[in-house]
Amino acid sequence: MEFTVRQCHELDMSGKHTLIDKSPREATAAREIALRYGNQPDALLEILHDLQHELGCIPEAALPALAKALNRSRAEIHGVVTFYHDFRHEAAGRHVIRLCRAEACQSMKANELIAMVERFLQVRLGQTTADGAITIQEVFCLGNCALAPAVMVDDRVVGRVDAARMEKIIAECRS
Ligand code: FES
């Protein structure tokens, strides 16, 4: 059996040598999910989505294990993770508000709305509020251009969002 870096033999209470897996949770999750997809590099995006679903983010600690499982360089994996805005390096808050800043929403004052949200929550895009309730992210088109400016609150798209509506959304997230 091949030992990973963090696997080792340890003496248990009875003095027997026992194999203990000391791999970080992140690396273990990465290996298990990659295996579910047959360690196929072509499934990298699906694997990353599953990993983020399980861990709440794509932590750096998972990348070496994932690279090894898929027989790819860590730089390649890192490149994909950083290319897609959907992948987070830190766990999100209990709710994620995605604010659209693509053309149609920009023409309906999306940037002003984003500035208002940043001021109101005291965080910047990509950050989570101190109480862990809300993460805000930018997104480019939610397919709801006719009702711009649009935002997505967790899985729900909301259109024609102005400051008053946004305050209500935030209050709901914090309740
Ligand atoms: S541009 Fe914002 S929903 Fe399409």
Structural features, described:
This protein has 175 residues and is of the alpha+beta class. It is built from seven helices and six strands, in the order ββααααβααβββα. It has helices at 25-36, 44-55, 63-70, 74-83, 103-106, 110-121, 163-174, and strands at 7-11, 17-21, 95-100, 134-139, 151-153, 156-158. It has a four-stranded mixed beta sheet. It has a two-stranded antiparallel ribbon with strand order 1-2. A hairpin with a 2-residue loop joins strand 5 and strand 6. Helix 1 (25-36) packs parallel to helix 3 (63-70). It starts with 6 loop residues before the first strand and ends with a helix. The protein binds FE2/S2 (inorganic) cluster. FE2/S2 (inorganic) cluster (FES) binds at residues 100, 102-105, 141-142, 144-145, 148, 150.
Q: What's the short version?
A:
By secondary structure, this protein is α+β, with helices and mostly antiparallel strands. It has helices at residues 25-36, 44-55, 63-70, 74-83, 103-106, 110-121, 163-174; strands at 7-11, 17-21, 95-100, 134-139, 151-153, 156-158. It has seven helices and six strands; from the N terminus they run E-E-H-H-H-H-E-H-H-E-E-E-H.
